[in-house]
Amino acid sequence: MTASTTARIAVTFAAALAATLAPAGTAQAATAYCESLTETSHPDWMAELSDDTSLAALSVPGTHDTLSLHGGAITQTQEDHGDSAETLTAQLDAGVRAVDIRVRRVDDLFTIHHGTFYQNANFADVLAKAGDFLADHPGETILMRLKAECTGELGSCTDENSDKDTAEILDWYRDNDPNGGLLHNPAEDGMPELGSVRGKIVLGSLQEAQGGLVDGYGLSQFTDDNWGEYVQDEYEVPTIGDIDDKWNHVRDHWDKTNDADSGEMFWNFSSGSSLGAVPKTVACGTGDVRGVNDHALDHLGGNDVPRTGVVLMDFPGAELIDEIIARNS
To answer: At 282, which helix (H) or strand (E)?
Structure first.
């Protein structure tokens, strides 16, 4: 390899790294489908629904890696409306009712992480903000996916000073929550009806860092064997040229959702990323390439999609949230 070739590679790598570490907000202006969630407000949309409505039958706007705000464009997945889970409050006010919380075990407690990056929030903050919201809006329910984040591998984090496993720590929070009874584990109850879980956080799944589900926690519908049947999470988007492929996964999973029994819950991650296509680019697009959120809003506005299931998004826009909630009418 010549010196000039080496120099060109170094310059290219440096440019890519700089783009990766740049603040995510520098990529694309707010639109109807991207980074405009505070332009809508749905604090009580579940309160209007019948108590006997199955959670599985709902169309639920959610956020992927709900509190990932720090670490640059490769890790930021949501609009930044404040640390200590203030961003969660903004999402809930807009109508988001499904959250994806990633935790690191530190001193037998949970901190919020994305890879190696601490997100300036702890699980206690999540419970406090969710508890405040549900106290003010008792007709609502929040669905939570909780996942251990630290694999110990390169690019990830390691747990520190913790003898308890993930489930034991979650049990401690459940038993010591000052709100009392906020966390609901439906593992033995089947799919809840809305009336039985209003004012609660429903644990949809508990997963270890490598992805395996923890037995006895979350919705009994989900198992390691059928996870891919009900959950679309094709998160690898190698380049911006692959964004359309990611959108096709989202659309196909919506088709599957509407062909299935309404008593079965489906989760659909519209998120994706790589060094060649960071989360905001995949969600929001560029000047020349449409993002997944744009495709999704257009599809919901022009096609018969009676049920979206749970849609976990990066940088969701106001009208995209509106369209998902409108399916519950």
So the answer is: helix 279-284
Distance CA 99, CA 96 (A): 8
By the 10 Å C-beta count (0-12 exposed, 13-18 middle, 19+ buried), 127 is classed as buried
8 Å CB contact between 83 and 69:
yes
pTM value?
Answer: 0.91
Domain spans of the chain? 28-326
Does residue 2 carry a pLDDT above 50? no
Instruction: Give the residues across from 285 on adjacent strands.
Output: 290
Superfamily of 28-326 according to CATH: Phosphatidylinositol (PI) phosphodiesterase (3.20.20.190)
Query: How many CB atoms neighbour CB 46 within 10 A?
Result: 23
**Token digits of residue 98:** 């499904």
pLDDT (tens digit, 9 = 90+) per residue, 276-329? 999 999 999 998 999 999 999 999 998 889 999 999 999 999 999 999 999 998
- Bridge partners (DSSP) of residue 312 are 62, 269
CA atoms of 96 and 89, how far apart (whole Å): 9
- When computed from its CA atoms, the radius of gyration of the chain, rounded to whole angstroms, is 19
pLDDT band at 14 (very low <50, low <70, confident <90, very high): very low
pLDDT given for residue 10 in this prediction: 34
**Band of residue 28 on the pLDDT scale cut at 50, 70, 90:** low
The string of DSSP letters for 42-65 reads -TTTGGGS-TT-BGGG--EEEETT
Determine contact, residues 308/258, Cβ cutoff 8 Å: no
